[in-house]
Amino acid sequence: MAFRSWRRPSRRMVLTSVAAVAMTSVVGGVAYSAGAATQQPAIQTSTPHRADDVTNIDVLRQQLRNYYGDPLGTGNFAADSNYAKEAQKVAAAGTRWISVPHRTSKKKAILLDVDDTTLATWNYEIASNWAFNPTSNADFVLNQKFPAVPGMVDLVKTAARDGYAIFYLTGRGAAQEQATLGNLTSDGIGVDAGYPAPTTLTNGEDGLFTKPAVADYPDYLKQACADDKNGSCTTIHYKSATRAHIESLGYEIVANFGDQFSDLKGGFADRTFKLPNPNYYLP
Ligand SMILES: [Mg+2]
After folding, report:
1. How many angstroms is it from 49 CA to the middle of ligand 1?
2. Structurally, what CATH architecture does the domain formed by 11-274 represent?
3. Using an 8 Å Cβ cutoff, are 127 and 63 in contact?
4. Biggest alpha carbon distance in the chain?
5. What Rg value do the Cα atoms of the chain yield, rounded?
6. Would you tell me which of 39, 197, 207, 283 could form a disulfide with 167, CB atoms 3.0–4.6 Å apart?
7. Exposure class string for 204-231: b at 16+ Cβ within 10 A, else e
8. pTM, two decimal places
């Protein structure tokens, strides 16, 4: 079942895009365009002039293993890795932000993405050799194999203790909602990351938002995504329209946490926080 294939449409472009982004400033960037009316790649980036303008993909994979403190590629990142330290820095900045007074008559909330924002998918990157596949990924999701992103559980616990509503917003499909909830919180299956449970909204909706099938879109997604291809929301439209929906119910999203820029674009949050993720790029 390809219920997540839409989520990562261009995962096979991942490593080349990482390398291309890294060298953009060096090369000065010729935009990739293969004929005006033809289909464009999902990731718009520059074209290297020479092979040496980009990092060799096998060398890049090793650099990523080193960054995660896992030079031999076991799938377990190290607690003292540069990845863990960078994630903890973002979590600390988020904690400082939510801890200062925010004057609002609305109910204060924080909102978090799931993959590589609250749950770290490093073990799946290693297992899949950075080649996303909905079937192999579903094994990790449904068996709840992902540990917490360093620093993030304490941040969310602090927010919950301070009276914030806690919302999770993920591109994972509705069929993966129960497993996602179990991995995030504590259901005794697989990894229990120990996050506070999502807050039930004032209208009774549960606060873990997974992406419905197009046929099941609520009105706010139908409207926001009417002009998207086949009426299927882009990530930015899906996520920003959902945040708008949440705020329309009387919440103020004080902080929005994501590892992809598409998690953070489109407004409806006072401030955004970007978690590190050099492994893939989701437009
Ligand atoms: Mg993510």
Report:
1. 31
2. 3-Layer(aba) Sandwich (3.40)
3. no
4. 56
5. 19
6. 207
7. ebebbbbbeeeeebeeebeebbeeeeee
8. 0.87
Cα(263) to ligand 1 centroid in Å equals 7
CA 50 – ligand 1 centroid, Å = 32
First to last CA, the chain: 22
- CA–centroid distance, 260 to ligand 1, in Å, is 6
Q: Are 265 and 240 in contact (CB under 8 A)?
A: yes
- 148-186 per-position pLDDT tens digit: 999 999 999 999 999 999 999 999 999 999 999 999 999
Distance 52 CA to ligand 1 centre (A): 30
